[in-house]
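Exercise: predict the fold of this chain.
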Amino acid sequence: MPSDLEQLQAIRSQTLAIIADLTAAPKPSYVIDGQAVSWSDYLAQLRQTVAWCDERLAASEPFESRSRAISD
């Protein structure tokens, strides 16, 4: 079973691949029989997914905090 970190990396990678496909051959938005398909909204959602993954991946990285004590 992949770890949470590996799953986030996979989701990010898969989403970026979908974005690459969509932007390589853009499609117009349309309405058929009352059902709307908005490719620009879909692309925005994909970009939000990548940003969400980036936030989670950045939060999982170790960080260093430096402090200094001052004596009186």
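Check your answer against the key: Residues 62 and 68 are 20 Å apart (CA to CA).
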